[in-house]
Design goal:
16 helices, Aldehyde Dehydrogenase, Chain A, domain 2, seven-stranded mixed beta sheet, 2 domains, globular, alpha/beta
């Protein structure tokens, strides 16, 4: 495993140690309590900014502003105007993209090579939703009632949306929430993760510059137990769009019961990635490795259960371990870095705890297996890319979401038995398989209980293709026309004309 040096950086224009307020009703304001919290670079511990800490009082203010906007001037804005706002925001994000990608790297640690690669996806999402803004329509329906009764449907915005996003990809997550809201005519109160709030705040600045009216986008940083809980239970929020853990997702469902608000949930995963003996191993080795090691394993759909056919198990897992050992671990701002830090000390403790659990359960760490405690990276939250061999289905490292750069390699012999084992998890977000046999690929893809199946690739994403989960990985979809539908109500209209 290669390590890069911690590198000195010039102060980022937005992460320069200054104080950041929250955005409510088009104004940058302090928290009602006056509280603030710090956000730090997980690679170095350096203070990036202090941020206004919102709680229930601030959520109340933001929701009230979103409601006024939704029922006021925003309700009169035409689809082509919403389209133009999204296109203007896309242009501004493109103009400021390097700054935004660096901000994401600073705040949550992802390598700059990864956050720069968001360009196509982020701009594609905004321009896709811009196109969808003018494509929303109902339909006329021929009914069977006697007489002359005309029936048709209208698609209308659901209303005020409470959006709660995680820290593992704030740039893309922010766009994933505000894009469909603006396209459909909803308003948003966004609660970014306390670990990485800066990108969301900067995008909100650009949205104001693009001309998004006051109250349409509100951003209230804060903690899940206070600001997040208040947003999820608020009686004047019509929908919650949440990305995060399944435990928090369950809490949001319970909190939504007060006014039966709409809920869409993109939750965790323990995704199977399956390698058959007939696969192109030269492609499958890096593909399976980076299905987990990308973003230091902090991806909900990471292929962390690596099922390998017995005939090639030792060879393949050994090659994946070798690949992991050669990855460059370091400060995300170094363009040579392939694996950055975990986002926080709390996440570091969680991942290293699972490393201990795996070894106590009898799994063998062929690569990694520990925190980096020496050299220039010792002050950051770095864990070596880890490959566990000899993993059994009932081990905790094979069943529980670790959210770190940890692969659990499991052997299989029979394909039908494999499918049952791959599906033997409470999650169902992503899955992958590697084979040259097209018939086998179709059979397994149809049999896997997961929202996405990647064949001979992993983590492919496109704004037009829906993404979401089965089982405890949540419900609802993001991306695609299905995502836009999540922000719309359907109204039936009947007119007696005879």
């Amino acid at each position: 495993m290669a390590m890069t040096q911690a590198i000195p950086i010039a102060r980022h224009p937005f992460a320069n140690g200054s104080y950041k307020q929250m955005l409510i009703d088009g104004q940058w304001v302090d928290a009602a309590s006056g509280k603030r919290f710090e956000t730090r670079n997980p690679a170095t511990g350096e203070l990036l900014a202090t941020v206004a800490e919102g709680d229930k009082a601030d959520i109340d203010r933001a929701v009230a502003a979103a409601r006024r906007a939704f029922e006021g001037p925003w309700s009169k804005v035409k689809p082509f105007e919403r389209q133009n706002l999204l296109l203007k925001l896309a242009d501004l994000i493109e103009k400021n993209f390097d700054e935004l990608s660096q901000l994401d790297t600073l705040d949550m640690g992802a390598p700059i090579s990864r956050t720069r690669a968001y360009r196509l996806r982020v701009l594609g999402m905004l321009r896709y939703y811009a196109g969808q803004a003018t494509a929303i329509h109902g339909e006329t329906i021929e009914n069977s009632l006697p007489g002359e009764i005309f029936s048709y449907t209208l698609k209308e915005p659901v209303g005020v949306v409470g959006a709660i996003i995680p820290w593992n990809g704030p740039f893309t997550a922010t766009i994933w929430k505000i894009g469909p809201a603006i396209a459909t005519g909803c308003t948003v109160v966004l609660k970014p993760a306390e670990e990485a709030p800066l990108t969301s705040l900067r995008i909100a600045e650009l949205a104001m510059e693009a001309g998004v009216p006051a109250g349409v986008i509100n951003v209230v940083p804060g903690y899940g137990e206070t600001a997040g809980a208040a947003l999820a239970s608020h009686h004047d929020v019509d929908k919650v769009a949440f990305t995060g853990s399944h435990v928090t997702g369950q809490s949001i469902i319970r909190a939504s019961a007060g006014n039966l608000k709409r809920v869409s949930l993109e939750l965790g995963g323990k995704s199977p990635d399956i390698v058959f003996a007939d696969a192109d191993l030269d492609a499958a080795v890096p593909g399976a490795a980076m299905a987990v090691f990308a973003n230091s394993g902090q991806i909900c759909s990471a292929g962390t259960r690596l099922f390998v056919e017995q005939a090639i198990y030792d060879e393949f897992v050994g090659r994946v371990a070798e690949f992991g050992r050669k990855l460059q671990v370091g400060n995300g701002l170094d363009p040579n870095t392939q694996i950055g830090p975990l986002v926080s000390e709390q996440q570091l403790e969680r991942v290293t705890g699972y490393l201990d659990v795996g070894q106590k359960e009898g799994a063998r760490a062929l690569a990694g297996g520990a925190r980096i405690t020496e050299g220039p990276l010792a002050k950051g939250y770095f864990v070596s890319p880890t490959v566990f061999a000899g993993v059994q289905d009932n081990m905790r490292i094979a069943q529980e979401e670790i959210f770190g750069p940890v692969i659990s390699a499991i052997a299989f012999k029979d394909m039908d038995e494999l499918v049952k084992r791959a599906n033997a998890t409470m999650f169902g977000l992503g899955s992958g398989l590697w084979t040259r046999d097209v018939s086998k690929a179709h059979h397994v893809a149809k049999s896997l209980r997961a929202g996405s199946v990647w064949v001979n690739c992993y983590q492919a994403m496109d704004p037009a293709v829906p993404f979401g989960g089965y089982k405890m990985s949540g419900y609802g979809r993001e991306s695609g026309k299905q995502h836009v539908e999540e922000y719309l109500n359907v109204k039936a209209v009947w007119i007696k004309t005879g």
